[in-house]
Amino acid sequence: MKNLIVTFKGNKYEVAPLSTTEEIIKKHDLDVIDPIAVVINGHFTRLNKKIRADSDIDIVTLQTPEGKQVYESSVMYLFLVAFAKKFPKHEVFIQHTIQKGIYAEVSGGELTTAQVGELKQYMKELASKNIPIVKTEKDWDEALEAMLEGDRNDMLNLYRYHRPSTLKFYELEGVDECLYMPLAPSTGYLELFEIQKYRGGVIIVLPNFKEEKVIPEFVDRPKLFKSYEEYHKWSQILKVRTVGQLNKYIMNDEIDDLIKIAEAFQEKRVVQIADAITGKEKIPRLVSIAGPTSSGKTTFSKRLGVQLMVSGFKPVTIAMDNYFVDRDDTPVDEDGNLDFEDINAIDTKLFCQHINDLLSGKEIELPKFNFIEGKKFPSGEFMKLEDNQIIVFEGIHGLNPILTKGIDDSEKFRIYIAPLTQLNLHRHDRITAADTRLLRRMVRDNFFRGYSASDTLSRWASVRRGEKKNIFPMQEHADEIFNSALFYELSVLKGHAERALLKVEKDDPVFAEAQRLLRFLSFFLPLHTNEIPTNSILKEFVGGSTFKY
Questions:
Q1: Is 409 helix (H, G, I), strand (E, B) or coil?
Q2: Pick the CATH number of 67-205 from 3.40.50.10580, 3.40.190.150, 3.30.980.10, 3.10.150.10
Q3: What per-residue confidence (pLDDT) applies to 195?
Q4: Nearest to 527 by CA among 490, 487, 486
Q5: Residue 417 — φ and ψ, nearest 5°?
Q6: What is the pLDDT confidence band of residue 211, given thresholds at 50, 70 and 90?
Q7: Domain ranges across the chain
Q8: pLDDT of residue 40 exceeding 90
Q9: What letter would DSSP give residue 375?
Q10: Which spans in 35-106 are helix H?
Q11: pLDDT the model gives residue 230
């Protein structure tokens, strides 16, 4: 059999058939730092995938968002293997991120600090041995038998309505797991992690390879964890913690009542937050709402405004977009693009002055930013606060103290909003909040802004950098945290997102990510929007909202 030609960064390499990218890197001494996965002819896969034809490859490193996802999934699998071997009578449910860590809920008895130490030591031993993580295929009947034997109803529910002819499993130390992300070739890639006891479970902390290869110190986020816990308890009551359970409700025509309950739960939280504002002895006159992109900030602010009016107060809105500095003064990101998510892209001095003037009873003239010219002008519109008015502003910097410098804390009420996803594919395969927000943004961009899926995906890395720098460090400054996640939303977004993603061409640099998202969405049964209330946060992304944006 003749040799194959593999093209990497414009250079061609002759390789033997069935070579792996892992082998090619070593043989040809490719200049690649920290490889973890590979894109072969536009398909995201494992670094030890055998190449069977002439191919273009793009090596995925730990410094990329995709590489970090592979590393996270691989370390979590290592954790699941160690947990199954050490504590076979316990069960674990992979839940959500907290600061730099991932929280895993433990049932069947809380682990002691010493037991968590044993778990960590065993994981380190497995990593040091560089054991291959083997990928195998099982036909449906064989896979079904394995799920039944392992009491994996969570996986049975997932694959009940998504039944491929074969299922791919990862195997290490006799522990099988079906995961949708590609994993590292062996345990030797997974030496950097920390694990510690946290509340009733454990937290697994991972490095940020973009900076240094060190494990960051875990910093507790009690307010954020409380918000997750509220949603978690509620989802347990409704028995909709996994995609399989959601699909079952859809198939059995039992979803409509659950949608009403989910929306009512969110409205109850909006009322609680409005009551927290108006119930203070001194009513704060400045309410700031912050959160990462596609969190539903605009709809939430309007729903909050309605509830404030019910309590006899009139909210007035200040648009942060009108306080941008002139385009020539806008900072740039590491790629040389204008960085509108940097705090210095805002005229903070003017904003602070205006807020202070308003709270002091003075009248101000609002600015108006001309996005075509890239300049700020006087708008001719004046504002002065009345006795029953409360200023509401929303934006990614809403929690940053620079924007409210010199204002007494008694005048401020700060709200953090984000879709803190609690739905899992199955109990060992979590869905990230970032993927939920990405799909929300993609659908909204496609509907209302004329952007393609390729446009949204191309900008996503820059958006995420801005969030990590400007938003996430401010979470615990909030007085209240609002979880805007709706357990049914990905089933609604599915059809809209798939149509956009299928338009991404194979030669597009984001093709592999588009294919990953299409595979992810394939697990969800579609859901139409007929039963969604017109004031739902989801309507901000799919259209049909009762609010004007």
A1: helix
A2: 3.30.980.10
A3: 96
A4: 490
A5: -130, 135
A6: low
A7: 4-60, 67-205, 222-542
A8: yes
A9: E
A10: 65-86
A11: 82
CATH superfamily for 222-542 is P-loop containing nucleotide triphosphate hydrolases (3.40.50.300)
Q: Model confidence over 179-207: pLDDT tens digits?
A: 989 999 999 999 999 999 998 899 999 99
Q: Which amino acid, one-letter code, is at 476?
A: E
pLDDT in tens, 80-129: 999 999 999 999 999 988 878 999 999 988 899 999 999 999 999 999 99
Q: How far is CA 90 from CA 97, 201, 242, 309, 375, in A?
A: 21, 11, 19, 50, 60
CA–CA gap between residue 534 and residue 545 (Å, rounded): 5
The answer to whether 512 and 458 are in contact (CB under 8 A) is no
On the question of a common fold for 4-60 and 222-542, the answer reads no
Q: CA–CA separation, 479 vs 410, rounded Å?
A: 12
- How do residues 450-487 score in pLDDT, each as one tens digit? 899 999 999 898 888 888 888 888 888 899 999 999 99
Per DSSP, the three-state class of 134 is strand
pTM: 0.91
- Whether 409 and 473 have beta carbons less than 8 Å apart is answered as no
**β-strands 175-177, 166-172: how paired?**
antiparallel
Q: Which residues of 151-175 are buried (b: 16+ CB within 10 A; e: fewer)?
A: ebbbbbbbbeeeeeeebebbebeeb
Three-state secondary structure readout of 183-216: CCCEHHHCCCCEEEEECCEEEEECCCCCCCCCCC
Kindly write down the DSSP assignment for every residue of 40-56, as one continuous string. ETTEEEETTPBP-S-EE
Q: Which residue has the tokens 């809380």?
A: 110
The CATH superfamily label for domain 4-60 reads Beta-grasp domain (3.10.20.30)
Which tokens in the block code for residue 321? 């977009």
Q: How far is CA 523 from CA 93, 159, 160, 484, 504, in A?
A: 19, 8, 10, 22, 20
Digit-coded pLDDT (tens) for 388-431: 999 998 888 888 888 888 888 899 999 999 998 778 999 999 99
Yes or no: say if 356 and 281 are a contact pair by the CB < 8 Å rule. no
Side-by-side strand order, sheet with 166-172: 134-139, 166-172, 175-177
Query: Do 372 and 388 meet the contact criterion of CB atoms below 8 Å apart?
Result: no
CB 193 within 8 A of CB 100: no
How much of the chain, in percent, has pLDDT values that exceed 90?
67
